[in-house]
Amino acid sequence: MQIQLSIVYKNKQHEIALDIQNKGDGMFDYILTHKNGYTFYVFRKESGIWKLVYGVLDPELASIILQALAAAIDSPSDQSPEL
Question: What number of other Cβ atoms are within 10 A of residue 28's Cβ?
Fold first, then answer.
């Protein structure tokens, strides 16, 4: 399963896709794979806070992605994905 996010970074619009992995007990990892196909970044909501838990990104970009994830996943009309 994937989630599509639309973000603005360095004054450019980007469409990104994150793979969703069900870790069990209601925990999900959201994985962004770099265009090189080898590097990846893992985002997760822990104790109610969205975090980049694996990988190193520009702090501004990480913050933008975290905000977009929170808006997409935490909005009242959306629920956590059922896998």
Answer: 19
Which residues lie across from 51 on neighbouring strands? 44
Hunting for tokens 């994830």 — which residue is that? 69
Contacts of 42 (CB under 8 A, 6+ apart): 29, 30, 31, 52, 53, 54, 55
Q: List the beta bridge partners of residue 4.
A: 17
Residue 23 makes CB contacts below 8 A (sequence gap 6+) with 29
Contact 2, 9 (CB under 8 A): no
What is the sign of the dihedral through the CA atoms of 20, 61, 65 and 45? positive
- Locate the domains of the chain by residue range: 2-73
- Copy the structure tokens of residue 64: 């933008």
Question: pLDDT for 30-67, tens place per residue?
Answer: 999 988 888 899 999 998 899 999 999 999 999 999 99
